[in-house]
Design brief:
nine-stranded mixed β-sheet, seven-stranded mixed β-sheet
Length: 259
């Protein structure tokens, strides 16, 4: 199972398209007055769908909904090229972390929706799990100079192969979220960060879904007419279904062929 694509509500299509093209390196596939689709410039599947929100404005911070969409680059050189684009555009980072299994850059899109740009380390380099977990991660400072130098300048194929590696959600109750993602969807609980963040995945990956309650414990879902997350589409070999998380986020399960 993998994240096929994510649909987001945004205030201004042109502004958001500009961000996901110039910063993330995606390419617009289709666009009309109400929506736009974007994917990697190598012609692969659509990864992000942007839908015009009925009520423009900044995304709500202290509600359930999207924490960030994580765009994954196949190589460290490509992530370094993404960092170079961020620097060239003078776009502010909100964080940069080494998670032992991955290297990640954090920023917000024009509506305040979180975005992670990251690359995975090879699995043979992941640290061994500790007691009570299936994967071991940490959050330590990322060496931005070393990452930038890895790009050797902007590469012609610097955005080829980008996909959505994981989706990180804000939830009202972590236990309820874990029950949904393991029971209804079939993911495994890989590890917890305290009692308020759960990392879930299929196939031994470090995480396809994260559910945290850092800003959203007991909170309702973000209003459906403001910028936020509309749906997550997961592709795999299992059943096809439309589900709702305990917070009300739409989750579409699709076969790999249908997705």
């Amino acid at each position: 199972m993998e994240i096929q694509r994510v649909a987001l509500r945004v205030s201004e299509l042109d502004r958001s398209i500009n961000f996901y093209e110039r910063i993330a390196g995606l390419e617009t596939r289709e666009r009309d007055d109400a929506r736009a689709t974007l994917g990697a410039p190598d012609g692969g599947p659509v990864r992000i769908e942007l839908r015009r929100a009925k009520s423009p404005g900044k995304a709500s911070r202290r509600t359930a909904g999207l924490f960030h969409t994580a765009l994954r680059y196949p190589t460290r050189e490509q992530l370094g090229a993404a960092l170079r684009r961020v620097a060239t555009e003078r776009y502010p980072l909100s964080g940069a972390s080494d998670h032992l299994v991955s290297e990640a850059l954090y920023l917000d899109d024009p509506d305040g929706l979180g975005v992670e740009l990251y690359r995975d380390r090879p699995r043979e380099e992941w640290p061994p799990p500790q007691s009570g977990e299936k994967v071991h991660m940490d959050t330590i400072p990322l060496n931005l100079d070393a990452l930038l130098s890895a790009s050797h300048g902007e590469l012609p194929d610097a955005s080829a192969g980008i996909d959505v590696g994981h989706v990180h959600l804000k939830v009202a109750d972590v236990d309820d979220a874990v029950a949904f993602w393991t029971g209804d969807v079939g993911l495994e609980l890989m590890t917890m960060f305290g009692d308020d963040a759960a990392f879930l995945a299929a196939g031994g990956y470090h995480h396809h879904i994260v559910a945290n309650s850092w800003f959203s414990r007991g909170a309702p879902l973000e209003p459906p007419d403001v910028p936020g997350i509309d749906e997550v589409v997961l592709a795999g070999d299992g059943k096809e279904a439309e589900l709702r998380t305990p917070d009300g986020v739409r989750v579409m399960l699709a076969s790999a062929e249908a997705a």
